[in-house]
């Protein structure tokens, strides 16, 4: 059992004694189960010991955090590393689409990992999102504002090690509504979002280039309209710069970080909808590294030179568009910043927002960076 374990809801550090355990029978009857002295000594999950219970002698399968009361999968305690993603961005940036295709590619990549959902909620949400994108082929609706979604809870089994006990990593993913992320205030809803932001190891800051006034003036209107998830009257620089400043200020206040000292949390700035930019004259040239196939999965490591070139190409492109203020804010506030470019679908949707065959481009790059930074995969 790892001392880094945290409740994915309240983000407090937790250990075996911080959970309340329950036995649940097939007819949904439940009763509390206490840890025995041997359970505490051996750091193991308890079994049901109630006479005449159908589950007597079986290891419990339900628990909740004693601090926040949220239900937890008991196995969350028994991982070797705890990883977290928190997706932030204005409404319509494509956060949910990106996370869905990223997880799908991770499950079916050539990497020696097995991705397993820890709870029913994560399974059901993922199946629904994947069906919508890969089978129905329709752009998903934006995350509902004003309702804090449950974090997705995943286990990654690292099958690259053929030993009897293989490493396991807990991956928590939080995807909040763009409207809620843009203006963090002091309501209970804001507090929930802010908690995830402050407690995450890696912030995915999603940047929608189609909100840039320079792009809007050049891209074909049909492609622009089909690729926009929401109607926006304002331009992106004001939205994104304001959000980045608000984000940095909140983290500084909640973590007591002095002005001038950079924030330690990793910031993966993800330029979305790369497919639409291919259709504009001043988009990326056909020889750009960013348009080439990602090498990280094939190398089974993080290819530093490729990532550095992509980072440089996006920064140069934004400079050419006269849109550097957002990155200036990020670079001034965060110590570890890397810029990525992705296409969740591979091609823009048609005028009815229907998708062609989904062929994601570079969606694994940010998570490969995170895994390299965590020492799970090599940097090559």
Tell me, rounded to a whole number, the average pLDDT. Answer: 85
Structural class, from helix and strand content? alpha/beta
Q: Tally the helices.
A: 13
Gap from first CA to last CA: 31 Å
Q: What is the overall shape?
A: globular
CATH level-3 fold name of the largest domain: Rossmann fold
Rg over CA atoms: 22 Å
Total E-strand runs = 11
Return the CATH architecture of the largest domain: 3-Layer(aba) Sandwich
The side-by-side strand order for the widest beta sheet comes to 6-7-8-5-9-10-11
Q: Report on the biggest sheet.
A: 7 strands, mixed
Low-confidence stretches: none
Question: What does this protein look like?
Answer:
The protein has 380 residues and is of the alpha/beta class. The protein folds into two domains: 16-75, no CATH class; 81-373, P-loop containing nucleotide triphosphate hydrolases (Rossmann fold), CATH 3.40.50. The chain has 13 helices and eleven strands. The protein has helices at residues 37-42, 95-107, 120-135, 178-182, 188-199, 213-216, 221-227, 236-254, 274-277, 296-299, 304-320, 325-333, 365-373; strands spanning 19-24, 30-33, 62-65, 71-72, 81-88, 113-117, 152-158, 168-175, 202-207, 263-271, 334-341. Strands 6-7-8-5-9-10-11 form a seven-stranded mixed beta sheet, sandwiched between helices. Strands 2-1-3-4 form a four-stranded antiparallel beta sheet, with no helix packed on it. A hairpin with a 5-residue loop joins strand 3 (62-65) and strand 4. The chain is globular, with a radius of gyration of 22 Å. The two termini are 31 Å apart. The mean pLDDT is 85.
């Amino acid at each position: 059992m790892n001392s880094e374990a945290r409740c994915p809801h309240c983000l407090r550090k937790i250990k075996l004694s911080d959970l309340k355990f329950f036995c649940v029978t097939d007819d949904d009857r439940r009763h509390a189960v206490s840890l025995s002295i041997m359970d505490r000594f051996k750091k193991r999950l308890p079994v049901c010991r109630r006479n005449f219970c159908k589950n007597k002698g079986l290891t419990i399968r339900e628990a909740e955090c004693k601090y926040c009361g949220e239900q937890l999968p008991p196995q969350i305690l028994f991982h070797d590393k705890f990883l977290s993603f928190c997706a932030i961005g204005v409404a319509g940036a494509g956060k949910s689409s990106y996370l869905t295709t990223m997880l799908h590619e991770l499950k079916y990549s050539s990497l020696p990992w097995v991705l397993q959902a820890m709870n029913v909620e994560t399974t059901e949400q993922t199946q629904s999102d994947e069906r919508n994108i890969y089978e129905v082929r329709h752009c998903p609706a934006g995350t509902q504002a004003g309702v804090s979604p449950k974090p997705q809870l995943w286990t990654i089994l690292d099958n690259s090690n053929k030993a009897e006990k293989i490493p396991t990593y807990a991956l928590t993913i939080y995807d909040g509504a763009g409207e809620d992320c843009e203006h963090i205030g002091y309501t209970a809803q804001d507090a929930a979002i802010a908690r995830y932001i402050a407690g995450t190891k890696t912030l995915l800051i999603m940047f929608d280039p189609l909100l840039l006034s320079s792009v809007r003036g050049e891209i074909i209107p049909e492609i622009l309209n089909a690729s926009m998830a929401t109607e926006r009257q304002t331009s992106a620089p004001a939205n994104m710069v304001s959000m980045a400043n608000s984000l940095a200020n909140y983290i500084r206040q909640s973590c007591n970080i002095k002005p001038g000292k950079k924030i330690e949390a990793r910031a993966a700035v993800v330029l979305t909808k790369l497919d639409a930019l291919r259709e504009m004259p001043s988009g990326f040239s056909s020889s750009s590294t960013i348009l080439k196939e990602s090498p990280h999965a094939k190398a089974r490591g993080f290819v530093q030179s490729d990532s550095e070139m992509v980072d440089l190409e996006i920064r140069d492109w934004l400079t050419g568009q006269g849109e550097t203020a957002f990155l200036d804010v990020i670079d001034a506030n965060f110590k570890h910043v890397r810029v990525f470019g992705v296409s969740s679908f591979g091609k823009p949707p048609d005028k009815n927002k229907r998708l062609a065959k989904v062929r994601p481009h570079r969606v694994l790059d940010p998570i490969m960076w995170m895994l390299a930074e965590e020492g799970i995969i090599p940097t090559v």
